[in-house]
Design goal:
The structure is a homodimer of 132-residue chains. Chain A contains two helices and seven strands; from the N terminus they run ββββαββαβ. With 132 residues, chain A is an alpha+beta fold. The longest helix of chain A is centred in the C-terminal third of the chain and has 13 residues. Chain A has a seven-stranded antiparallel sheet. Helix content of chain A is 16%, strand content 45%. The interface between A and B is medium-sized, with 24 and 24 residues.
């Protein structure tokens, strides 16, 4: 059941607040990794590159969880459970540049590696808790 | 296969570095939540209370992942996958007080609720990656 981020905590997405993304490995064990996130139109978006572990994981099993903590107060955070509902390379370069602007203050993502193909993931939140 | 935290990143556990703990819900979906952590004798320890979601989850399925980020540099972090190998109430009150000392600078954990039974969890790391 789609849900939205409570207005009380929507400001987290305008801060340099990192997400912690949990995905599922092939053997069902969880994996957790820091991510840049944004939120638009009721969806959470993150970005990775083709072939990375989280890319492989969410293509196999779209079920994810994301915690987003306020950089100004680690006791204020969102816990989100949901599902990756779209995976695309279209617009993924522009998206990583927008995230680089938000998190690093630069116009172009500076860490691109040779041959890297960026991928943009859309997450439908299905359960959200807020703390703090 | 047990592994240890690389010496290059062991300092994270002496900082007020939060962990992001991923556990598995009954339906196999991941859950992720911020935690206080410490590290001793090759094991990672965290603390919760009886009956909480993460308590129920790790009793059902001990497979977890933990990311620990440097509060002074979010691009420096550990990604740990492992297993909860011990769950005990013994020493759990002393343990949450030690964590409160580290994270809050107080001698006694101030957020205890009436009737709450603290629980201490020991995690055996099985795979560790370090970044930054």
């Amino acid at each position: 059941m789609p849900v939205t981020i409570p207005a009380s905590h929507a400001d987290l997405f305008s801060k340099k607040a990192f997400g912690s993304l949990a995905t599922l490995n092939a053997d069902g064990t969880p994996q957790v990794t820091p991510i840049w996130v944004d939120y638009e139109g009721g969806f959470i978006f993150f970005n990775s590159a083709r072939g990375r572990r989280k890319d492989k994981n969410v293509r196999r099993d779209p079920r994810v969880a994301i915690a987003v903590a306020d950089p100004d107060n680690p006791y204020r955070y969102l816990e989100i459970r949901g599902r990756v509902v779209d995976i695309t390379e279209q617009g993924a370069d522009e998206h990583i540049n927008r995230l680089a602007k938000k998190y690093l203050g630069v116009d172009v993502y500076p860490y691109r590696q040779a041959g890297e193909v960026r991928v943009k993931y859309r997450v439908q939140p299905e359960h959200v808790s807020s703390m703090g």
